[in-house]
């Protein structure tokens, strides 16, 4: 049985480089209410889905409350419990409400920062295999380095929600 809702399609947003947070020319994607979570094991529901779709390097936690980005890897955030307001794209980006069943997919360089969260907020984070995650703070020096590392980050082989034929593959190939 599929845990992905039939009508699950992501919202795509391209965030501009603001001089400190590089963001990416690839669109940030957010699926809203895309996953039917098992009430007794929501984290495992997301982990199983991500693993089936080749995003196998995972963790469980929240989102840091300071602005940061990852210049060496793309990241998927699947909300297992609760809800949060997260600023994506840096100080000039957008604050989005994400809640259980949502998945945000951040191309390398996309700024993100927790604004507020429910007490039970929990996300499953995942990365495509083979890349090392580094937490990068927005400074002029880090920005200059990120502009060199981000283009070297290989696109994933599959969308963490919809698989090899998913929207991420189509949208990121076109960009």
Commentary on this structure:
The protein is of the alpha+beta class and 175 residues long. It has a single domain, classed as Jelly Rolls, CATH 2.60.120.10. 17% of the residues lie in helices and 27% in strands. It has helices spanning 42-52, 140-149, 167-174, and strands at residues 11-13, 28-31, 57-61, 75-81, 83-88, 94-99, 103-106, 112-117, 122-127. The protein has a 6-stranded antiparallel sheet, covered by helices on one side. Strand 5 and strand 6 form a beta hairpin. The N and C termini lie far apart (33 Å).
List keywords for this structure.
175 residues, alpha+beta, Jelly Rolls, 6-stranded antiparallel β-sheet, 3-stranded antiparallel β-sheet
List the helices and strands and how they pair.
Layout: E1 11-13, E2 28-31, H1 42-52, E3 57-61, E4 75-81, E5 83-88, E6 94-99, E7 103-106, E8 112-117, E9 122-127, H2 140-149, H3 167-174
Antiparallel strand pairs: 1-2, 2-7, 3-9, 4-7, 4-9, 5-6, 5-8
């Amino acid at each position: 049985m599929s845990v992905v809702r039939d009508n699950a399609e992501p919202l795509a947003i391209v965030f501009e480089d603001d001089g400190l947070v590089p963001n990416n020319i690839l669109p940030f994607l957010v699926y809203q209410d895309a996953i039917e979570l098992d009430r007794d094991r929501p984290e495992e529901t997301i982990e199983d889905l991500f693993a089936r779709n080749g995003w196998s390097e995972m963790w469980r936690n929240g989102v840091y409350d300071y602005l940061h980005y990852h210049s060496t890897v793309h990241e998927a955030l699947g909300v297992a419990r609760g809800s949060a307001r997260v600023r994506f794209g840096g100080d000039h980006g957008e604050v989005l409400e994400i809640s259980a069943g949502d998945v945000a997919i951040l191309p390398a360089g996309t700024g993100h920062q927790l604004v507020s969260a429910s007490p039970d907020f929990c996300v499953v984070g995942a990365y495509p295999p083979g890349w090392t995650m580094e937490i990068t703070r927005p400074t002029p020096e880090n920005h200059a380095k990120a502009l060199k590392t981000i283009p070297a980050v290989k696109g994933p082989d599959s969308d963490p929600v919809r698989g090899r034929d998913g929207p991420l593959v189509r949208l990121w190939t076109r960009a």
